[in-house]
Amino acid sequence: MQNLASNYFSFLQKFSSPKSCELTSTKLYHENLATPKSQKLLEKIFDKPQEYSNQNMDKLVLLSGQKLNCSTANQCEEPKARKGRHGYHQEVENIVNEQIYHEFNAALSYLAIASHFGQTDIALPGCHGYFFNMHLEEHEHALVFFNYQLMRGGQVKLKGIDTPQVSPKGPADAFNTALEMEIFVKEKLIEVFNVAEKHKDLQVQDLITTDFMEEQNKSICELGRLIERSKITDTPLGEYLFDKMIFSAFVKKDGSKLMNKRSLQDTEINLAYK
Length: 274
Ligand SMILES: [Fe+2]
Known about the structure:
Elements: H1 2-13, H2 18-32, H3 36-47, H4 54-67, H5 90-118, H6 125-151, H7 171-198, H8 202-229, H9 236-251, H10 255-258, H11 266-271
This protein binds fe (ii) ion.
Pfam family, one: Ferritin
GO biological process, one term: intracellular iron ion homeostasis
Organism: Brassicogethes aeneus (Rape pollen beetle)
């Protein structure tokens, strides 16, 4: 029986799904293996492993989950099979993956806005650079959560990013859209905090409050102020002056880091605003 169990465990490890590997291997191994029904099932798996795709394995997991009073595998206690993982609840892991998705979505939306202002018939290098920088910032946030997930012994599950639904009518509209996105992301961060609090995960709570919340609030404040200033953009001269201010205040100062050939064209930097 012990040999069968360890074989079964090795078999499950071939599946990347944590549901298959962690829940089934630990729970079925300890609690279901001794029953004649599950033993028969295991023998079937060893006979024809090719018939047991991930989909079939998930059914097995669900079966075991029901036996353990869990409606799905993810609602069970934290996985125990992965080494280097301690006190990291499955629900926290899931919501961190959700946050990675939201940060990447925000990054792509900012990139779409930046591309709008970078078009030759729009040509507003201040707004172009500002939103390009915002894109880099959101991308970096996604990577912070990505690396954090791995550090805690979790599994990163990347989801497809949505096509950005942004087509700004002008600078004022773009900054209003940005404010809505920042508020949305802040609310998502609070959800991560609440799940971490529920499972007494002190470090995830600290990650949110220390590394994200202040910056998020500063962004919301900054965008609110810029929306006020952007009211002058209803005339061509106002639009020029506003963009020049954005360029000087937010794009030019980070020149060494961001204004390289890959972020803004040299000619634009040299000719636009000095
Ligand atoms: Fe962010």
